[in-house]
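testing teh design pipeline on a random one, pls ignore if ur not involved
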């Protein structure tokens, strides 16, 4: 099993695609995320980068480990790199303060759960990102 050499451009292209919301959604919902990595691989191919599905998966796993190490060590120089910024955006934790908005402010004793549900619908489009922990 060979460790592929990745150029900065290849890493940027991989992470940019990987960070897209629809790709993240697929990764969260798919048990066998093989297809997602295959898509990333063919996406890179369209940009002239020759990386296999498993190379893409391995690279992302290694980048994630490196990201966690940098966060732990608070390595501010490494945190300025472009790939780190992309991962930070995807993995960043938001404080659960948004949740307070989900409780309808004025509720009367006559409101049924169904009516309350309707009031909360407007917030269902909010994208709440949580930290991914393996």
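output:
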């Amino acid at each position: 099993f060979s460790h592929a050499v990745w150029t900065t451009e290849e890493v940027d292209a991989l992470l940019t695609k990987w960070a897209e919301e629809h790709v993240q959604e697929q990764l969260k919902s798919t048990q066998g995320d093989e297809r997602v990595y295959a898509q990333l691989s063919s996406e890179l191919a369209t940009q002239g980068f020759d990386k296999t599905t498993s190379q893409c998966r391995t690279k992302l796993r290694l980048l994630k480990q490196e990201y966690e190490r940098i966060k732990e060590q608070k390595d501010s120089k490494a945190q300025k790199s472009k790939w780190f910024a992309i991962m930070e955006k995807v993995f960043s934790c938001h404080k659960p303060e948004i949740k307070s908005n989900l409780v309808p402010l004025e509720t009367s004793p006559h409101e049924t759960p169904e009516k309350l549900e309707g009031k909360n619908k407007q917030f269902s489009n909010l994208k709440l990102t949580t930290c991914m922990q393996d």
